Description:
Elements (H helix, E strand, L loop, with lengths): L12 H12 L14 E5 L2 E5 L1 H10 L4 E2 L3 E4 L12 E4 L1 H23 L2
Antiparallel strand pairs: 1-2, 1-3, 4-5
Amino acid sequence: MMPIDYKKYPENWKTEIRPAILKRAGHKCEFCGAPNHHTIVRHGDQFEIIEGMVLEAMAIDGVKTTWIVLTIAHMDHDITNNHPDNLKALCQKCHLNHDKLQHKLTRESKKSLMLF
């Protein structure tokens, strides 16, 4: 993921808006339910929280694990629309999936501009 340019967000993003959305979501992804700041292993659409010695064993065995860091997604992709109804707490996978089409359109638009 690209680093977030917080200059584009309201001054209270980190201190009020983001914490309020995380709290509303119960600190879990609002699409898949993955818990913030936990290590998981995905099994298709399901996941398993991994901790302690099991995590160490899985690392040794080369099992792919994911450390969940929830991000706040703009459902309409407009970063100026910070109404709570437009914001959701999402894990990395769900946020990328939500933004997939938008990213594709942005890439295509940039390619078109390069042709001129």
